[in-house]
Specification:
Blueprint: H1 2-21, H2 25-77, H3 92-102, E1 109-114, E2 119-123, E3 128-132, E4 137-141, E5 158-162, H4 177-182, E6 188-189, E7 194-196, E8 202-204, H5 217-223
Antiparallel strand pairs: 1-2, 2-3, 3-4, 4-5, 5-6, 7-8
Length: 236
Amino acid sequence: MYKSTIAQISGGGQTGFLSAKGFTLAEVLITLGIIGIVAAMTLPTLVAKHRIIVTETALKKFYTNINQAVRLSVADNGETQYWTFADEAYNPEKIEAFYNKYFKDYLKVLENSKTNRAFNIIFSDGSAAGIDYYGKDWTFCLNAKYLQDYSKYIGTKCFIFGFYPMGVGGDCDSSTYSYKNFHNKGVEPYVSCTITEEDGSVNNTTIKDLYKSPSLYTKLIQLNGWKIPKDYPLRL
């Protein structure tokens, strides 16, 4: 009788404990469903933030490294206003010769290649730059695979820089924003001399115009401390 009473008390207590602390299958499934919904809502945001950080880091790294190369080259080859650019705008062999003379020894490049109009350099981290227009226009891409069709990715995967230490020339005189952006400087985010408005009129480019063309978006990022602005026109 004594043992039977103990068994009943013990058994009843264990059953009550499991009922109070355990979870039914339905409750588990509901919890997992909620977790899945939250993950589905937050994951795209996390991925987007990661892409932004990767882009910001890559742009700042390229800008720092390319201009360090310019400074080192100046020490050996003289001031940039005396450098000899390629004498054909889109001749990859002549652009390569310009690159070899002024940049090759000062950049860590994994490999290079040519297209019918540009000389491309690929860095050890997989990013790349295409050089054309006498060696003055530089297209930096987060990955070399984007170079082939870079025009599709301008402002998202590829970003335009320019190297115009004597200024852009032509009608781009010393009063223009573009001239001030490039003159006596190294490789800088591209700023066109003029911009064509929706009504067809052509005006000198100003800071306010930087939002009007993806080729100018690199300058937007630089002006924001190499951080993607919250009102950036494109989704990365």
